[in-house]
Amino acid sequence: MTANNPTLFYLLSAVVVIIPLQLDAQLSPKRYRSVYGNDVGGHELKNILELGFGALNFVQQGQRYMNQEISDTIPQFGAVYDFIVIGAGTAGATIAARLSEIHQVEVLLIEAGSNENLVMDIPLLAYTLQLSDDINWKYKTKSSDKYCLGMTNNRCNWPRGKVLGGSSVLNYMIATRGAAEDYNRWAEMGNEGWAYKDVLKYFKKLEAIKIPELKSDNIYHGTRGPLSISYPPFHTLIAEAFLKAGEELEYPLLDYNGKNMIGFSYVQTTTVNGTRMSSNKAYLHPARNRRNLHLTRESMVRKVLIDRRTNRAIGVEFIKHNQIIHVFASKEVILCAGAIGSPQLLMLSGIGPAKHLSELGIDIVQDSPVGENLMDHLGYGGLTWTIDEPVSLKMFDIINPTHPYVKDFLTRRSGPLTIPVGCEAFAFIDTKNLKNRNGLPDIELILIGGGIKGDILYPTVMGFNNRMRQIWNKYNNNYTWSIQPILLKPKSRGRIRLLANDINVKPEIVANYLDDPEDVKTIIAGIRAAISIGQTKTMQIFGSRLLNDTLPGCENYKYDSDDYWECAVRTVSITCYHLSGTCKMGSRKDPTAVVDPRLKVIGVQGLRVADGSIMPEIISAHTNIPIHMIAEKLADMVKEDWKYLDKSRT
């Protein structure tokens, strides 16, 4: 079930029992003896035995999990379906499942990767999945002298999911929507039907909110959707302190997926019973017995087939088991390959910048600005505080089989392994006006209940060079916590271009982080806001001390000056995996648009794109939930256009 998966190492060598403990600022931190706050010693043999039984039970559950997967099919050459969906990621799984609700149509879902498994669904260890060649496309940005300077060859790792569920299997399970202003801005740009009042119903439709205090809020939340959204069942004392620090700074504690975003909150996650809920689990598992939903795995799409006489997409060419197969769509082809894969496939199919395509010998079907407008949320990964007490997430402790942590996850789905990669809480702030409590935030601060510096695998996962690893490895034995500031509304734009007329050659990715000076100013303001949280009385209860290593290349700048922080951000430039915008949605009169507001590719009939690539501007949020929303809305638009939609049920 877990061949060549580094997560297995963690899973089969760790331990946990939950003893709830509320932070009391009046009590001495000397009472804290572990991440649970109490002494976890004295039961080593019992923990190991229960760990063994838990592991056996986990394997059995994993087999039952695999039985929930849709069976694989090998389409016959020339087979015809009503709809062909390319990519079984967040959007593709959602769309295929929704279209298969129409009993009289046949839907083919094509996925390059293989099955998801239960080991992939352990929240704390999710970042280790990026090490797998089997489920990660392992893209890298083009080398730059402006960002990612602390990475090997100055190239950022940009992981993307190559598995049923796509990047929803690799991501950190964070559930955010963005602000109403984000979507109202889309509408103002000429995208009728995409204002917040139009998309809110789809956010509610996809959601099964499991957070008790939010279930009654039927204005903003849904309870009957396929995707479970909940708080992790365990929080460290650091996370509790972080929320109190927010109150100390006079920020509200709020539901950031409700009316307002600015404030502090625990992280809402796409998890159920302490484990990941991918789009595969949420949408495809319940649809596995539908005879009209067909899935072909390990199938690499090479291009969309287009009838040049009519400029209509008529099918797809893909390779499975070294065999080239053509399948045809009587109604539509829907491209859901993501912000890298979708523009790559469009260009390989002749839809893209004409000059660029002609240089590669690709016949031009439609001159279109495909690959432009690339956006991502940039994070700074260098803010870590060391503390005196063992209340944070230190991987060596968590995976120690004599401790209860992994045992508690395997037997109860509780404890620190239910925390998504240590991400525990948020602050959304407006650095332009720190007293603002309404409107659009420009910085997100993610509280990580452990150390970015000193984590045993994080430098490898992110692609840091040897010099950076040497600097940070000295903190391996420290108890630490971190804040990652994220630039929410970047003005900089990158691009994607083909390097060859070949699907097996990865495209050139120019991230162009920090190209706009305003982005630099905003992220520095975010760093200073994060530092102010570490200075609060609440966070000082644990003796929090910021680790202020001078970074390579930044030695000539005065520490804590704006010039120093700019150098630091350009060195420790962290992707938040929110790639978007490369098949921009806009009015058919907009020369920068690739798809129209109904997500139809401009200039080509029978072809739509539905994934993060269609975002005209990146939203103030992690992109997984908005991509689910895009897919839900697209499914309804397709049903409406083909007269299948029962509006009374939407």
Labels describing this entry:
seven-stranded mixed β-sheet; 17% strand; 650 residues; six-stranded antiparallel β-sheet; alpha/beta
How is this structure best summarized?
This protein has about 650 residues and is an alpha/beta fold.
Question: What do these coordinates show?
Answer:
With 650 residues, this protein is an alpha/beta fold. Helix content is 26%, strand content 17%. The chain contains 17 helices and 25 strands. Strands 1, 2, 10, 11, 12, 13 and 25 form a 7-stranded mixed β-sheet that branches. A hairpin with a 4-residue loop joins strand 11 and strand 12. The protein is globular and about 75 Å long. It starts with 6 loop residues before the first helix and ends in a 9-residue tail after the last helix.
N- to C-terminal distance: 39 Å
Number of helices: 17
Q: What profile does the largest beta sheet have?
A: 7 strands, mixed
Beta-strand segment tally: 25
- Report the average pLDDT across residues: 93
Radius of gyration: 24 Å
Low-confidence stretches: 1-30
Shape, per Cα inertia axes: globular
Approximately how much helix is present in the residues?
25-40%
Q: Strand portion, in percent?
A: 15-25%
Counting helices, strands and paired strands, the structural category is alpha/beta
List the helices and strands and how they pair.
Elements: H1 7-11, H2 44-66, E1 80-86, H3 90-99, E2 107-110, E3 139-140, E4 157-158, H4 180-188, H5 196-206, E5 207-209, E6 227-229, H6 237-248, E7 263-266, E8 271-272, E9 275-276, H7 279-284, E10 293-296, E11 299-307, E12 312-320, E13 323-335, H8 338-348, E14 351-352, H9 354-359, E15 366-367, E16 378-380, E17 384-387, H10 395-398, H11 405-412, E18 423-429, E19 443-448, H12 458-462, H13 466-473, E20 479-487, E21 495-497, E22 508-510, H14 517-534, H15 537-540, E23 545-546, H16 562-571, E24 573-575, E25 607-609, H17 624-641
Parallel strand pairs: 1-2, 1-13, 2-10, 5-6, 13-25, 14-15
Antiparallel strand pairs: 3-4, 7-18, 8-9, 11-12, 12-13, 16-24, 17-20, 17-23, 18-19, 19-20, 21-22
Helix pairs in contact: 2-11, 3-17, 5-17, 14-16
